[in-house]
Amino acid sequence: MVQLSIGGLVLGKLPVIKSIQHGSVSIAEATASETDTITSVDTNNSLILYNGKTGNDGNIANASWFFVRLELTNSTTVTATRDEPFEDAVVTYCVIEFYPGIIKSNQSGSITMTGTSNTATINAVNTGTIIANYQVVEFY
Q1: pLDDT tens, residue by residue, 74-109
Q2: Residue 106 lies in a domain
Q3: Based on the structure, what is the number of domains in the chain?
Q4: Is residue 105 a contact partner of residue 57, using CB atoms and an 8 Å limit?
Q5: What is the C-alpha separation between 35 and 95, in angstroms, rounded?
Q6: Model pTM above 0.85
Q7: 73 within a domain of the structure (yes/no)
Q8: Residue 22 belongs to what domain range?
């Protein structure tokens, strides 16, 4: 809740979070990408959080087999993608939708790794008011 005051007059507390949805995406062994359906959200006012992955990772020799990225593909679809299919996996997530006026900018994309690191360019943000987790979400 955020307390709203105008000119010293306190008007009360207003909620900032409109909805929270938890879910999971199951990816079959030979599949690179799968989706899960959620209740519709405004993608401009939402962020997705990675809550972990289960699967048989003990025999993995290649990091691209292990890592899965999440994306809010549209207002009702969460997509989990990995670069190379390997073992069955279940990826859990949380989608948080905020009321309008809470999120200042919402940016996402992907980076192709070349060696051990690489960078991508985003629009300028105030690093003191962001969450970076598959997206860079800047708050007012």
Answers
A1: 999 999 998 777 778 899 999 999 999 889 998 887
A2: yes
A3: 1
A4: no
A5: 14
A6: no
A7: yes
A8: 13-139
